[in-house]
Design goal:
12 strands, 12-stranded antiparallel sheet, about 220 residues, single chain, alpha+beta, 4 helices
Length: about 220
C-alpha cells in the first residue's frame, strides 16, 4: 500500500533524496589506515557488488573489528532500499514550525522522529528500550544523485532520564570514483557525557588507492 499521508510523503521524499549506490554498483577495493592516538594500523578492504565486506592485513583483531563496524555503517548508509518495503507498516504524524518539519514514525518495536529541512533529514531520534539514539546532521555533500551527511554527531542517551552517556562527532570526506561517491576519510571524536569539552579519543579512518572492482578486473 502506498504511503498517502502528508507526513508519510514528506518523510518519503527526504528518505529517497539521500545518496545511495545504484543496482550497478560494482564494489571497490582500497588500502586502509587507521590512526588512533600514537598508533597507526594498515590493511586492505574490499566491498563487493553484493556489499560483502572483506578486511585483510590488519594485525590487531580489535582494530580489524572496528574497521568492519565502520564499513558496515557505510554499507547501511549507501545501500539502496525500497521505501514501501521498509515503512509500509509504519504510522506517520506531523509537527511543523517556521522552517522545520518533524515527522513521527511509529513501528512495532521502535518509535522514531525526524526533523526535515529543505527535503533533508537533519535529525533522527530513535528510542529503543532504555536507550535513545540521536543523530544530528550539520553539513551535507550535495551530489548529482542525492545528499550525504558529511558533518554529524551521534548522541547516546538514557531514554528514561535523558542523561547523555556519550557523544560521537563525525567528519566525513567523499570523492567520486567513476559514477560513485566513496568515503575516503572519516574522523571520529568521542566525548564522555554532555558537559565534557575534552575528547576521550580521536580516530581517523583513511582510505586510499581506491579502485572500483570492475576496473581492478580490467
Amino acid at each position: 500500500m502506498a504511503i498517502q499521508s502528508t507526513a508519510g510523503i514528506i518523510f518519503q521524499t527526504a528518505y529517497e533524496s539521500r545518496y545511495t549506490w545504484d543496482e550497478n554498483f560494482p564494489g571497490y577495493a582500497a588500502d586502509v589506515q587507521l590512526l588512533q592516538e600514537d598508533e597507526v594500523y594498515n590493511g586492505k578492504i574490499q566491498i563487493d557488488r553484493s556489499l560483502n565486506i572483506e578486511i585483510t592485513g590488519v594485525a590487531d583483531k580489535q582494530i580489524e573489528a572496528g574497521i568492519d563496524i565502520q564499513l558496515q555503517e557505510i554499507v547501511t548508509r549507501c545501500q539502496r532500499s525500497n521505501f514501501e518495503n521498509a515503512y509500509s507498516q509504519h504510522e506517520f504524524s506531523l509537527s511543523e514550525t517556521a522552517d522545520t518539519v518533524t515527522v513521527f514514525v511509529k513501528g512495532e518495536t521502535t518509535d522514531s522522529h525526524y526533523q526535515i529541512h529543505n527535503q533533508k533529514i537533519c535529525q533522527e531520534i530513535r528510542v529503543m528500550g532504555r536507550m535513545a539514539l540521536e543523530i544530528n546532521s550539520w553539513e551535507f555533500l550535495d551530489t548529482d544523485s542525492g545528499y550525504i551527511p558529511s558533518v554529524y554527531d551521534v548522541v547516546f542517551r538514557n531514554s528514561q532520564t535523558s542523561d547523555v552517556n556519550s557523544i560521537l562527532k563525525f567528519r566525513d570526506t567523499y570523492q567520486k570514483f567513476g559514477n560513485y561517491y566513496i568515503l575516503t576519510k572519516q574522523v571520529v571524536t568521542e566525548y564522555e557525557g554532555a558537559e565534557s569539552e575534552t575528547a576521550q579519543s580521536i580516530t581517523e579512518f583513511v582510505y586510499f588507492n581506491i579502485k572500483l572492482l570492475e576496473l581492478v578486473a580490467a
